[in-house]
């Protein structure tokens, strides 16, 4: 299984719009370090059998897919409906044209219902071969109940994202937890034994909707993954500072990062 980090930034990205010269607000991040330039958070999984699974469709999706050479996949998992995770949904039209059919969209019933309200046209019957609009097929999931995608088992679990909930994802020994500030007991149980965990760490200091560095370190002590990768990082999280200060086994993601993991057991 290949994990590609399409983006690892917060809702404003790094740099955020503005700045004295109009070229961005960098906060504590060194603008001369390319790995401080972060688009909105998303990952892509390419399984050994060729199956592709996208997680979220943020506003930077087109550029992210082009940068990684990704042009075909059949599945997308939605963690929640905040704009930085869904507003690139129309870019899926280009993928529809490549695969010639609708894309399966997985999410909780609440998430899919809101997507169907905001982007009703995307869930209408598809229009091959032209695909005048993006086309998705809603696939509701229930937290804690395994689902099978292309023969691989995924367990999706609930997370506290401040005023709303979000969905965490586990496949084999890999887990992804973006946009989370608290992990309920059921989520901790789903994460038990995970070896590589990519987790939200927006800043160094406490935040009402996102995990911060101290909290992530507390989770690490409980879950004890071999490798913990920070994502959804804001402008407090300078690459150089993290390289010099993160403890062993903890690292920062960067846009364009990819890594290989053993494929989980194939069910079919």
Automatic annotation (TrEMBL):
Keyword check for Hydrolase: yes
InterPro entries reported for this sequence: Metallo-B-lactamas, RibonucZ/Hydroxyglut_hydro
UniProt key word Hydrolase: yes
Sorted UniProt keywords: Hydrolase
Domain of life, per lineage: Bacteria
Gene Ontology MF terms in the entry: hydrolase activity
Limits of the Metallo-beta-lactamase domain: 39-232
The name this protein goes by in its record: MBL fold metallo-hydrolase
UniProt source species: Acetobacter syzygii
